[in-house]
Amino acid sequence: MREGSRPPHSTLKGLRAEAFPTPFCAGCGHGILMGAILRAIDKIGWHLDEMLFVSGIGCAGWIPSPHFAADTLHTTHGRPIAFATGAKLFRPELKVVVIGGDGDIASIGGNHLIHAARRNIDLTVICANNRIYGMTGGQVTPTTPQGAFTVTTPQGNPEPPFDLCRLVLGAGPPYGPRHTVYHVKALINILTRALEHQGFAFIEVLSPCPTQYGRRNEQPTPWAMMQWLKENTIIVKRALSEDIGDKIIIGEFNDAESQALLF
Questions:
Q1: pTM, rounded to two decimals
Q2: Which CATH number belongs to the domain containing residue 33 in this structure?
Q3: Does residue 18 belong to any structural domain of this protein?
Q4: Which domain holds residue 189?
Q5: DSSP string of 155-216?
Q6: pLDDT tens-digit profile of 70-102?
Q7: What is the number of structural domains in the chain?
Q8: pLDDT tens sequence across 135-180
């Protein structure tokens, strides 16, 4: 941090103070994630002028721009990690954060994700996973659950989904936790550790999409989707000693025992 660059009261001075609507649908979890990211940055003590936020196309691409008064790079669909890699190589002193959705990061940009993890590039990649292409009409993505209904799978998705944390941890040595926007305090703590991690850090954040995913899959309200996140996830420490059934494991996979739950 440059001397004198941080105001004494808060690092969040860079957040625009004017009241204006966000582009997110009612009940979308991305606004919660947006706030959690800013609180994690404030907790660390960074100032936004030390950072570069890179996003692609999709609902999550709107999280940093226009909401953060910081340097933002809004790129083509599926390419934010590639652009972020170039920016980090050219300006290594910047703290570079990629924010995108599951379609952007794991589908169109899937190879960029794998190779950035393999190379252990010093980036933080935050994937807001709502398990569908939310902005472009509700199509199936690589994280859409098997059997789920989308515009392009009207009879149910026949394919098993990617476990993104398993994919990233299998590709290289990075930090790769998973959490949800329902568990806000824990999410802020994990985002803090991901931002401070030296090397490649990937965090999958489960975020509800009532508009495109929920209404097609018997979760038509924000409340229903939040309840689903509460009831169908289990923290990794409990998963080590309990029968997890079909629940999604959340938390940090920092040792062989916890990673074995994924593999």
A1: 0.91
A2: 3.40.50.970
A3: no
A4: 25-227
A5: T---SPPP-HHHHHHHHSS-B--EEESSSHHHHHHHHHHHHH-SS-EEEEEE---TTTTGGG
A6: 999 999 999 999 999 999 999 999 999 999 999
A7: 1
A8: 999 999 999 999 999 999 999 999 999 999 999 999 987 799 999 9
